[in-house]
Amino acid sequence: MEPEYVASMREHLARLGEELQQLHELLVAERVLSPLVYRAAERNLQLLTEACIGIAKQTLKAQGVVAPSDARQAFAKLRSMGLDATEAEWPKIIGLRNALVHDYLNLDERIVLDIIREQRYQLLLDFADQRLADPQPHRD
Fold it and tell me: Which GO terms describe its cellular component (predicted)?
């Protein structure tokens, strides 16, 4: 991966991580989020997922592999190559991202609140940290 991409992505992810932690602390303290703050939670989860998709595709490109246009396929390819050791359920994560973007009127808010409360977004931050810490190809 290009060093500029890695640096920009690290900065972006640090900001998202801080904001998600603040949302977690607020939710634990208050037990609810105002509509405005809830929308911030949705947006941060969307941005974090999109960052991970970008990192997955950049990782494949760095390996000399054509990155699939479908995000689910990109993560499946990474996992098959041993380049994703997380327990992230990418099809569900990408499905949530799609719901946040395209089907937001029908989204069950409890899903977003549970992710924030239980800090399940940390899996995505861990994946991103793992891939950005080792951006070099591993060709066998």
Answer: toxin-antitoxin complex
Q: For the chain, give every domain's residue range.
A: 3-133
Distance CA 64, CA 85 (A): 20
Which CATH architecture best describes the domain 3-133? Answer: Up-down Bundle (1.20)
Q: What is the pLDDT of residues 29-87, one digit of tens each?
A: 999 999 999 999 999 999 999 999 999 999 999 999 999 999 999 999 999 999 998 89
- Please name which of 134, 115, 135 lies closest in space to residue 42, comparing C-alpha atoms: 115
**Alpha helices in the chain, H assignment, sequence order:** 3-30, 35-62, 71-80, 90-102, 109-117, 122-133
Distance between CA 61 and CA 4 in Å, rounded?
Answer: 16
Residues 6+ away with beta carbon under 8 Å from 107: 42, 99, 100
R_g over Cα of the chain = 15
Take residue 116 and report the two structure tokens written for it: 């924030």
